[in-house]
Write a structure and sequence with these properties.
The protein is an alpha+beta fold. The protein has 4 domains: 158 residues, conserved putative lor/sdh protein from methanococcus maripaludis s2 fold (Beta Barrel), CATH 2.40.420; 102 residues, Beta Barrel (Elongation Factor Tu (Ef-tu), domain 3), CATH 2.40.30.170; 54 residues, Beta Barrel (OB fold (Dihydrolipoamide Acetyltransferase, E2P)), CATH 2.40.50; 116 residues. The strands form 6 sheets. A 6-stranded antiparallel beta barrel has the order 3-12-15-14-13-16. Helix 2 runs antiparallel to helix 3. The protein is rod-shaped and about 175 Å long. The C terminus is likely disordered.
Length: 453
């Protein structure tokens, strides 16, 4: 994952090491080879033209591709952990099994939770009985009030009648006082009955509140009991199960994964902070998997396509990278495995007129890079193709080819092989070109055989 300038530098370093190794090998055998070639009458370094292959530089579009390594992820994927800590008593599913939403996945030890449910239900039943009893008391108190009211009304009416009789001297003062006392007692009984009814209503309200608390406690204990059963939140395939029956698990401990293979897939990858500017939302990407060992090198890798949907605005302070996510729009079967490692390619720029040559055509000398361009000799004889040492600037690398950024132009021919035999100005034998009169019949010098030595 490098910028265009970094890729050129990395390519140059690799090419320098390659040619250094080749030079060391050549130095080992160059003495013997030179002696044989110098012993030949014609050909080789000091003889006729050297047979080479060339390529004509033709402008062509070249995509500058940013490459990163990423991971395929299902958007509906979860690492599940229990809601309470406890001992696993049973695992109800197997790895790779498809389950529906709500399926029990595993069960934790629940004796304590079951006892809590039983106790809360007993408390609820007691509170319900208390409410029922209090309502009975209210009915009785209401009946007492009704009877006391009737008695008080009757006493008042009789006292009024006795007052009239006393005024007519029909009854004595003592009889009137007795009726007054009866009326006062009836009124007091009515007041007492009403107070008892009010107290019964207060106690009923308290009993109802206790009943509500008991009902809430039952729900809480039932919820706690339900937390001992881990259920699938959605339909999917069970991944790796990392626990066994008898294990004690904590609240934050993942016990298994659940993946919906039919959910939307995305790929997540990271890029260095200096490269984030090359990417943008809605930018197209392609992904390819690692090449399987059973896949022939000539076979094309399956390719998926997607669009960048997220660029993390925050740089990770430890790694100095940003997370990028892309939604996959075309995903072959070989790329639909959650957690799969893939190569992500993003075209960040297109060179409309790139000049490409094989990597073997470019070689280093010191800190510079060169190619041999086909030129013509300046002699008065028939024109002779010659090798012209030309400094170039290598750029983007693409499928064992490299783009030349400077030093050459379209239409020129560049030598692609036989570079070790060449020097600046050496005569060349191009493909499909008859040998010159001064050259040997062989297109390339042939060392003498051992029997001629």
């Amino acid at each position: 994952m490098t910028t265009r300038r970094h890729r050129a530098a990395a390519y140059g370093q690799g090419l320098l090491i390659f040619w250094a190794i080749i030079t060391l090998i050549v130095l080992v055998v160059i003495g013997t080879v030179a002696m044989r070639f110098m012993g030949a009458k014609k050909g080789g370094f000091g003889g006729g033209p050297v047979a080479v292959n060339t390529i004509t530089l033709t402008p062509q579009p070249l995509d500058i591709t940013y490459t990163a390594q990423g991971t395929v992820q299902a958007t509906r994927r979860i690492a599940m952990n229990p809601e309470i800590a406890g001992i696993i008593t049973r695992i109800n599913v197997t790895e790779g099994q498809f389950v529906s939403a709500g399926t029990p996945l595993l069960t934790l030890k629940a004796q304590r939770q079951a006892a809590g449910v039983a106790q809360s239900r007993a408390g609820l039943a007691a509170s319900q009985q208390a409410v029922h009893a209090q309502r009975t008391l209210i009915h009785q108190a209401q009946a007492s009030v009704d009877a006391a009211e009737a008695q008080a009304q009757l006493a008042k009416q009789e006292f009024s009648d006795y007052e009239k009789l006393h005024q007519q001297d029909v009854i004595s003062r003592l009889e009137l006082d007795q009726k007054r006392t009866a009326t006062t007692q009836a009124t007091a009984q009515l007041t007492q009955a009403k107070a008892q009814l009010a107290q019964a209503n207060v106690q009923l309200a308290q009993s109802k509140a206790t009943q509500q608390q008991a009902s809430a406690m039952v729900q809480e204990q039932q919820s706690a009991y339900g937390e001992t059963i881990l259920r699938a939140p959605f339909s999917g395939v069970v991944g790796e199960i990392v626990v066994d029956p008898g294990d004690y698990v904590m609240l934050t401990e993942a016990v298994l994964t659940l993946v919906n293979p039919n959910s939307q897939l995305e790929v997540s990858f990271t890029v260095p902070e200096q490269d984030v500017a090359q990417l943008s939302r809605n930018q197209s990407i392609t992904i390819t998997p690692s090449r399987p060992s059973t896949l022939k090198t000539t076979e094309a890798l399956p390719t998926g396509r997607g669009v960048i949907t997220f660029i993390d605005p925050i740089i990770n302070p430890q790694t100095r990278t940003a997370t990028i996510k892309a939604r996959l729009t075309q995903t072959p079967a070989a790329l639909r495995r959650d957690g799969q490692f893939v190569t992500v390619n993003v075209v960040t720029e297109t060179l409309p007129n790139a000049l490409l040559v094989p990597e073997s055509a470019v070689f280093p000398q010191g800190e510079k890079y060169y190619v041999y361009v086909v030129g013509q000799s300046n002699s008065d004889k028939a024109p002779q193709p010659t090798a012209v040492l030309t400094e170039v600037t290598p750029g983007e690398r693409f499928k064992r080819s490299v783009a030349l950024l400077s030093g050459v132009t379209a239409g020129q021919q560049v030598v692609t092989d036989g570079l070790i035999k060449l020097t600046d100005g050496a005569p060349l034998m191009l493909p499909n070109t008859p040998p010159s009169k001064t050259s040997t019949s062989s297109s390339a010098p042939t060392p003498p055989t051992d029997d001629k030595e």
